[in-house]
């Protein structure tokens, strides 16, 4: 619907209510245009459609992969999307990621916590709502500038310019994009997962990512001690998320099934199995143990299972957990992924210990033998030492090709002395191409970095504090921040405007006309920035 159509629609309503004659239909229409989404469900339905279209586009052309950065505050998400629109003129194929790690570390009322599902579950939907509040405000902010330009064009009698601006308003591309939201292991049983999923969807989430760890033993994907659950438990939670989507009318909501089996060597329980070869039997086939030949081999408290026709006494730790066979991780990953895709999941997440296209592709190709359109969401994790990993991969490739690598020490490849070498430069090229290569060769539809803004906030704060409290003093801020904001066109240099001051001024005029007391007059110091 165009801005002019909205004016006509509001004018029709006002004509039936004569006591509302103080309302200018253009003002009400403008407020409607600046607030495209009325609630989180509107957003979830809109973004689910976008994500489904992106998935279909990727199936036809793997160069059309999608990306996101993890954002721990609405302002961070807002500035990310404003930056993307500024530099690339579109928000297409750019998402937000909501990281459970960052919610735990930065948004819990308990203070900083490890990524072990100890934070309040309500903090997850609260952050989704916050992110979309800031993205909607970015729409209002950007459109507000266009509407002010439109008023100036009308005041100057420049109808050509006015029509051009109206066209920009009518074709405005929203900052609201899909969020892939981390529900950890579901925060409890399947009913708890369903209830939290509803809150997340109502807040705006079109895509929920859930992992196959035990909820009360959950660990960060890059920590030790991970414990997985049998498939029946995990699939019940996938069903819970799907039913939450369907109940709320988000019929094309997206579920990402994450497997931590590559790094998880433990299970809390033995799966229920009804016949040889079913999912429970397959899960149990990976449990490590020793073959027994008689009841005399069974001690008090031992558990015995039948595995490949033999009686096996599983290895049980003092914690009561059972141990998987060493080296079985990749096989378990493939089994997990096929089971998830065949039972309601839309996308996969394989948590790996390093960024290696060949390793990821090896697993994905096995999955695609059963589910040809299998696609991944992949964590370009800050937990990887990217420089060392890729330098070692290049070292190994050079060595395999018979090249002389005697000038390099593989264990010391992080050393700055290798930065400008052939190996160092090649490794940087491989890193730069990782997303493109992995999208093409390893089925990765979506690349994300879970907690980049955690690191950027720390790094930029360190640089500012070092200078401001040192010899640079105020120059540290002026040269390192404000001057760069001005020269790079960063909107936050006018922080009053970014926070909504001009929107508020315009609303005051809508409400009170000439009697409005505005903040943006000649004495506003933001005018120093042009």
TrEMBL record:
Keywords: Lyase, Metal-binding. It comes from the Bacteria. Gene3D superfamilies: Phosphoenolpyruvate-binding domains. It catalyses: D-threo-isocitrate = glyoxylate + succinate. GO terms for molecular function: isocitrate lyase activity. Pfam families: ICL (PF00463). PANTHER family: BIFUNCTIONAL GLYOXYLATE CYCLE PROTEIN, ISOCITRATE LYASE/MALATE SYNTHASE. NCBIfam families: PRK06498.1 (NF005074). This is Isocitrate lyase. It comes from Saccharospirillum mangrovi.
